[in-house]
Fold each of these.
Amino acid sequence: MNKYLLSSLCLLVVNSAHADDTAPSLMLPAATITAPEIDAESIDLKTATTAGSRLNLSSLETPASVESLTGAQIRARGDSSVQDAVT
């Protein structure tokens, strides 16, 4: 039992030694993001979707089965990334 306790303590010390709390933080410049407001009621299958396609196709013209989500729906589901939203 002492052998396992000693091994655990050694791992704890090694892990603590690798933590570098003195690294300088990176400060990025402020950015302003703007986009036109879109009324969610005006979006239908004939509305062109610019996200995910360079062709500006509507959902009816897209040659695949797709589902469009609004930002409010994504936030309500608790998705924090695109990967979360599509899986």
Amino acid sequence: MKKLLVATHNLGKLVEIKKTLTDLSLEVIGLSSLSSVNLDFSELSKIDVQETGSTFSENAQLKAKFFSTKTNLLTVADDSGLMVEALNGFPGVSSNRWHCGTDHDRNAALLEKMNGANSRAASFITVLCLSDPVNKQEHFFEGEVRGTIADDIMGDEGFGYDPIFIPDGYQQTFAQLGVEVKNELSHRSKALIKLKKHLETLD
């Protein structure tokens, strides 16, 4: 069975991708399973590719292309982030890196930046890059969910900016709505559905 490498150390992300692609004739594996494919790949599984791109697409491509070239496996990688309208798209590609500390610390710091903002509109973006080592091509799949930034940190489920992001059509944050609802609405889910449709066209 053909393998699809998911270039992530995040187990939750791997599980979500496996669930979406479960009925395809692909064996979906994560970086932690590389040594079972080839013992020479054991060191690769420990590598974190630096996200030096200026866009989500560039960062996803950096990771996907690196691992597909090294392993000769069909590889998918993603980059995601929060874009706040009043902050000109900030934090964007720096969503996980712009402020030291915990997710709670970042949420509190972002809310402070939003003080006095006329608009609280925001969107979560995910870009998946599929790198094919055989034909040396990359394909991109984007997902977006629009919403607003809450006035306070609310909810205990999820991670990242979930406690301050209210998706359009709802009155609660992702962290209050819970994982199942979030996964139905999420930016990553939308991108994964597009990826799945593409994979279905491959031999």
Amino acid sequence: MKALGAAAIAAPLPIRAQSKRFDGITLNVNSYGGDYDRIMTETIARPLAERTGLKVTYTPGSSTAAVAKILAAPGAAPFDIVLCDSPNMPDLIKAQAIDPVDADAVPGMKKLLPKMREFGQFGLPYSIASIVLTYNTSRVKAPLSSFAELAEPSLKNRVAMLNLENTGGMLYFIAMAEAGGGSVDNVEPAFAALSKVKPNIVSVTPATVSLVQVLEQEEAWAAPLWDGRIHAMRKAGRPMALVRPKEGVYSLLSYASPVKGTKHPDAVRAYLDQAVSDEAIAGLAKFFRYGPTTSLDLGPEGQEVITYGEAAVAQMKTVDWTTVSERRADWLNKFNREMR
């Protein structure tokens, strides 16, 4: 019996599948749908699942709606991580709805370019979107080089623009304010510039997709528009120019932030580190031509990205998003009155 017992003790135990660090954990993250979600799944969620066992559930919708849900449920938000843009960050920070991101805990952040951390320790910036100038090269014979030229008489009833509900419209508005000697503290030059453009306006919309549509249908020939959307039209064969306007490049950053109260802080940090990996940053940059926030080498494709590389990023205009958040409603009301 003793010998049998010893043999039993010495016998190897059944082999078990090796467990992974985050097996059984699921992170809930808001998202934007379509190709955006496909790329995040391929470059963030799938590698994390394979390497760590972590599952990520993306819920598509507007970032504004996601932020509203978080602010409405302090301590019980439906997300572990919130994806949103620069304009949303001041409200989240003010409400203490997100936690800081420590670069020491997310090693990939050491690759971030200068100027990327607009909000100090808050938010992991992973993409840059910019408002630039586009025009139909088949319809507009004299090349355009500035937003101010949208007021040219030759463009009567042929200009489209985003209103101030859309951050793209807000960036154009701020560009016109500063080009006229103003600032976020004095936006009267922007309204003066808009009054000159108004006779040329055929469409003002809060929806980027609607603006793209009027350009594709050639109801409008020129507009301030997101760089990624212009790239998509060009890729589809549309004769649209992509111009860095003389007023400068006004941009916003897209952020991933840990929601306060998440039950899985270590898994959140793992997600953030993967989100700033070369694989993830390149996925969005190469497909949408949005600017990378890191020192990533995009190769020849980088030539088509407005905010690619340290030199280009250094020329980006900075925006005081806290002041914009405080005054946006008043500006929107006046804009709606004057642009009817």
